[in-house]
Amino acid sequence: MTDTTHQAAEEHTHTHGDDCGHEKVVHLDHVDYLHDGHAHREHGDHYDECTACDCKDCDDVCAACTCENCTCPTCKHQSCDCENCTDTCNNCTCENCTCATCEHAA
Predict the structure, then answer these.
(1) In the Cβ-directed half-sphere of 22, how many Cα atoms lie within 13 Å?
(2) Cα Rg of the chain, angstroms
(3) Residue 51 gets which letter from DSSP?
(4) What is the pLDDT of residues 26-36, one digit of tens each?
(5) What is the C-alpha to C-alpha distance for residues 70 and 74, in angstroms, rounded to an integer?
(6) CA pair distance 46, 43, nearest whole angstrom
(7) Prediction pTM value
(8) Measured between alpha carbons, how far is residue 8 from residues 38, 52, 106 in Å?
(9) Residue 69: its pLDDT value, please?
(10) Burial 67-105, CB ≥16 within 10 A → b, else e
(11) Which domain of life is it from (predicted)?
């Protein structure tokens, strides 16, 4: 599971989900909902802020980072090495994935 500080996000008047209006992004072993520069992930009965990219010139969250030559350990932009996958490890959802660096959302 991704290491997070479990910083609780601000209160919401709705539950994040497929029809909430926020972009849904698979990020490692969870799903983030992007809005207003934040990435929120479900954590029990509340939402946590997901990690921010720690590259020196990036101000985005890992789930939305598009840095070239990214050095952030939680962004994981490398390509999945599964035989039939063309995605990056940070949002790979292959069933029976054999890639050593992919982590999958539930």
Answers:
(1) 21
(2) 14
(3) P
(4) 887 788 888 88
(5) 10
(6) 5
(7) 0.64
(8) 12, 14, 20
(9) 84
(10) beebebebbbbeebebeebebebbbbeeeebebeebbbb
(11) Bacteria
Tokens describing residue 80: 């999945």
Q: Kindly state the average pLDDT of the residues 5-30.
A: 72
Nearest to 106 by CA among 30, 35, 36: 30
| Cα torsion 6, 7, 13, 16: sign | negative
Cα–Cα distance for residue pair 69/9, rounded to 1 Å: 29
Per-residue b or e along 27-66, where b marks 16 or more CB atoms closer than 10 Å to that residue's CB? bbebbbbbeeebbbbbbeeebbbbbbbebeebebbbbbbe
Name the residue ranges covered by the structural domains of the chain. Answer: 1-106
Look at residue 64 and give its three-state secondary structure. helix
Burial of 5 (0-12, 13-18, 19+ CB in 10 A): exposed
pLDDT surpassing 70 at residue 9: no
